[in-house]
Amino acid sequence: MRENENQAVQSEHAAFPWKQVFGLLLSLALTFLALWVVLGLSLSVHATLTIIIGLAILQALIQLFMFMHFTEGTEPVHQIIGIAFGLFVTAMVVVLTLWILYYAI
Amino acid sequence: MMDSFIHFLLHRFFVTGDPMIYGADASIALASIGIVVVVTYLKKWKWLWKEWLTSVDHKKIGIMYIIAALLMLFRGGVDALMMRTQLALPNMHFLTSEHYNQVFTTHGTIMIIFVAMPFIFGLMNIAVPLQIGARDVAFPFLNALSFWLFFFGAMLFNISFVIGGSPDAGWSSYAPYAELSMNPGVGQNYYLVGVQIAGIGSLASGINFLVTILKMRAPGMTLFKMPMFTWSILITSVIIIFAFPAFTVALALMSIDRLFGAHFFTIASGGSPMLWANLFWFWGHPEVYIVLLPVFGVFSEVIATFSHKTLFGYAVMVWSMVAISIIGFVTWLHHFFTMGNTAEVNAFFSISTAIIAIPTGVKIFNWLFTMNKGRIEFSTAMLWALAFIPNFTIGGVTGVMLALAPADYQYHNSYFLVAHFHSVLIAGPVFGIFCGLYYWWPKMFGYMLNERQGKLAFWVFMISFNICFMPMYIVGLLGMTRRMYTYPAGMGWTPFNFIETIGAFGMGAGFLIIAYNIVWSTLKGKRDTTGDPWNGRTLEWSIPSPAPEYNFATIPTVSARDAFAVAKTQEDQENKKERQLFQPIHMPNNSGIPIIMSLFMFIAGFGLVWEWYWMVIPGAIGIVVCMIVRSFQYNDHHIISIEEIERTERAAGRLS
Ligand code: HEM
Ligand SMILES: [Cu+2]
What we know:
Number of domains of chain B: 1
Shape of chain A: flat
Radius of gyration of chain B: 25 Å
Oligomer: heterodimer
Helix content of chain A: 55-70%
Low-confidence stretches of chain A: 1-12
Number of strands of chain B: 2
Distance between the termini of chain A: 56 Å
Radius of gyration of chain A: 19 Å
Mean pLDDT of chain B: 93
Distance between the termini of chain B: 75 Å
Pathway (chain B): Energy metabolism; oxidative phosphorylation
Number of helices of chain A: 3
Strand content of chain B: under 5%
Structural class of chain A: mainly alpha
Largest sheet of chain B: 2 strands, antiparallel
Family (chain B): Belongs to the heme-copper respiratory oxidase family.
Organism (chain B): Sporolactobacillus spathodeae
Bound molecules: protoporphyrin IX containing FE, copper (II) ion
Strand order of the largest sheet of chain B: 1-2
Mean pLDDT of chain A: 81
Domain Cytochrome oxidase subunit I profile (chain B): 41-559
Order of helices and strands of chain B: HHHHHHHHHHHHHHHHHHEHHEH
InterPro entries (chain B): Cyt_c_oxase-like_su1_dom, Cyt_c_oxase-like_su1_sf, Cyt_C_Oxase_1, Cyt_c_Oxase_su1_BS, QoxB
Number of helices of chain B: 21
Helix content of chain B: 55-70%
Low-confidence stretches of chain B: none
């Protein structure tokens, strides 16, 4: 363990965080786009679902790369465990929920 | 115009017509005026603002969490006594059915979200940084924000009973009853918005403590050298991070249903009421582990300390918590076996629930083996830990009974269930919190809680707990269902209910003795001059009580588990005094933004509850402005000089 790890995480006051600002605007745009697809267009249920799921995946990638320092970690083990557990929980909630609700009377 | 405004105030805004509510109005008004008068008289406003309300110090935030949780425990406890009074005898008219529904709803929500959670956050704030040899948490500002979000969320939820009316759909708020068509009015909105605001704070705390524990341990403290309480918080943080988002989404969807006319959880337009139950319990089951694992950590510390032995089976303890955290995400359906699922679905969740009992049982044996051949010291903290084992085991065994889906058709929503979840929730989190308070109190405040009064409170509370809840198992099997506001005579339930009510008031008495103990000890309690009153094993006992602002004058180097116990056997403390070489310490600055931003959240939230968008908009703008102001604050820390460290350490007797 290095010495400096024992400090509270310091904020870096380097350059203007263009990446984050851009990511925020992009997230907002995608969110409102999804809302508009549902409320403003009257597509078939299937088409609507396909589009908003696509937008959701895009949104998740933006979060990972623009805010969550996905590519710059120093401790890959934590990253991998975190991502794996995240995938596990997401898979469980989606798959089991579908299983439960599909057959419920 | 004026007439309709007054009509609104008297008929919708203020809750009127019930003498108990008027009593509550009067006592709230008196208490508020009293606080303002006392603080003004003592000229303490500035002190309060500078030292507490704007503090980002984890120790002070922890204390504020605990004070708030104690107040909420009082409120939740009064709710409980009101219910037990109503049920003491058949056909009572103390509460109407409507009022009874509101009381069990607020009781349940407050006890889980505004009592158990803040107590846990309080204990982890106080102990985790000290146990890992850190000077604060990773994100001190965020930590303060978490606290104030919890606080204002709790306030928003709590004012419902005098302004607008309380929610009445149960703490699980099942759709469709909780939806607009069956539940008009603002009560349910208070639940949705208040819990949402507090939940954002909880999620932030989970992230904060995960990063703190991963990144800020003292040199040499590898993960498998961490104290067990810290381990439990690490795992709890992971569960918080993965469970809370589901609840956040569920609350948001129901809010959209109620406020904007959507149909996520109503049958109309293809919504699914069952989806609410599903999402609620997807968070709800992990939530019980969020409040349970930390107290497992507390018991591990306390049992090891007062058995004067190292914890038995450290690695097994860790891996069983890891197993619980994983399996805990796939058991949630056991809360609605009877909702019409297929046999395969019920079988799957029945088995997963039974499996999760195994690691829990393993931990029980580890605590027993820790005590085996130990020199057990019966302090108050240890008594709570010892009582936890048999009482919690009863709850665990009845939990396994409930987990058997076919049998659950009998037990479901009966008093048997009520007895079960109180066995686990009280013997677990509540005993654990009291245990942790008695144990860490000297570290928090620098004085001890009186042991004799503490033991009296323990016995009164623990015995009353059993008097209150044991008969519930029986009366549940006799057919009494949960959430009944009254019952007829001649069912054979009366004697059991009467005994339960006696037990409930006994628990109230136990709580009052604890409150008395705190007040008495504050005035006359023994000072803790050594910083190590219990002959502790972990790093928090190596520094003075109460801990100085910067916690550790020099960051310790760790070479083994039970770092402080090892250090005490190895080196002469006197030598250490000579060797200390100080360096200036960076500490984060206090900030008023967390409390102000949370106040804006409260304002926006209150507007949402009443659908007053003229109020929501300024609140929301305030929140964004606070974020922007914070983003441009560059000067956010100060430096403690070597002279000041020396002065502080000398005053604590750590420097000759
Ligand atoms: C801290 C520990 C625990 C807490 C706080 C807790 C809390 C609760 C609560 C609040 C309910 C009521 C659900 C409702 O509103 O209808 C419940 C039900 C249930 N609990 Fe627990 N529980 C805990 C531990 C356990 C354990 C260890 C097991 C089994 C191994 C278990 C199995 C169940 C089952 C199967 C039900 C569903 C019963 C029914 O709805 O009929 N619980 N629990
Ligand atoms: Cu559960």
